[in-house]
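Two proteins were folded this term; both appear here.
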Amino acid sequence: MKLTILGGGGFRVPLVYGALLADHAEGRVTAVTLYDTDADRLTAVARVLADQAEGVPDAPTVLATTELDEALRGADFVFSAIRVGGLEGRAADERVALDEGVLGQETVGAGGIAYGLRTVPVADALARRIARLAPHAWVINFTNPAGLVTEAMSRHLGDRVIGICDSPVGLGRRIARALGADPDRAWIDYVGLNHLGWVRGLHIDGRDELPRLLADPELLGSFEEGKLFGTDWLRSLGAIPNEYLHYYYYFNREAVRAYQDAEQTRGAFLRDQQEGFYARMKDPATPALPTWDRTRAEREATYMSENREVAGAGERDESDLESGGYEQVALALMRAVARNERTSLILNVRNRTTLSVLDADAVIEVPCLVDANGAHPVAVDPLPYHAVGLVTAVKAVERAVLDAAATGSRATAVQAFALHPLVDSVSVARRLVDGYTKAHPGLAYLNRA
């Protein structure tokens, strides 16, 4: 099988390749094509992959190209992990928002909207290209904002595009470990949108163990989300939120203040860190894999550091720094589809009739049963009222972003910002659109009334 990785010069690509190296079953991926517009980054990542493959029998071959059509032809799976505007764009997204006193995180709030307005037109064009050149390929989307971009691509690819995220998987594994259970045996009752969901149950051998966790303050406070949100708040919710809900309502004011007070934003940190990595990799004498691994470890250790500081959560646990996130989800998804190895995964898929508060085409994040015919969302209980408000409001924002990207309407872009729960003023929304169009020449298409 051939796997094409769009954004193949991206820093996290070696995680995907490492997962492929561990797969020796019949029908595995035997060829990987890396596509990126940046030839230097492609060369750097290809060097890391070559180090990973050393001594591995029958390692998947690697081809790096800056030609999109060459990359897509003959692909069985397409993994999309593009970053429109690069990390410089992310840093600008964060700074413009913080200057207006609102959150600028990459997938949440004003920053997520700006990133979506830049990314959706590109993702839309990619989906059209894939439909033409690789109509039988399955597309696995990791491009952020993952739910929004998956929905944009689904308008051309239907159910052949599936969004993945490592956040729900990591949350479920942490809960299972806190309960002393094997994470691989757990069924996670999770529902929401990407980066906006809640674990409402964790079933081991048919028994829901979440009530036991919620009833034990010591256990509840022993893992990342317990430390981040506080045990009292989790017990009052009766659920465990995705870590990104720390930004949404729950502790938004504290998060904004922490990011305003930080020496640099997360995007600026990653921009500087990865620019350093790629610069070092231009020297042929630089050991590729160790250099990448050290950079990755620093990246993971500092993840959501401002939020943990606000909550007094301390450093991340060692188990949270281990690999096994989205790359394992991607590999399990490919195995299930290519070999009909039926499995259950939390994925971003079209709603159909799963959540009654949303229409059939809305992309949601829920447990799915996966087989050779794709991912099928599992019926879930209705959303609690506290979740309905957030989910429907954010979905309305996503739809406004899609409409603005399709029409070039500045008024619709303003609406997207103004409707978001974390933007508290239409005047601020208008200034955000002005600020982002000034910071990003690619948003010049928003020029209609």
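Next, the second protein.
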Amino acid sequence: MKIAKVGNLIEFRNGLKGIVEKVNENSVIVDLTYMENFQDLELESRTVVNHKNYKILSEK
């Protein structure tokens, strides 16, 4: 399992995408405002995702 780094674009839970802001021991904090349809989804601007639950799309 490859762990994301700050600035990486990741995908998780049914196609949600975001930019990693902070890497913790077991999870990452992700900024969801990257998505074009962020306003339509009515989500919080940040979320926590376990390392097991995402895929790295691009690295910074």
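The mean pLDDT is 96. The beta strands are 9-12, 16-23, 27-31, 46-50, 54-58. These notes refer to the second protein only.
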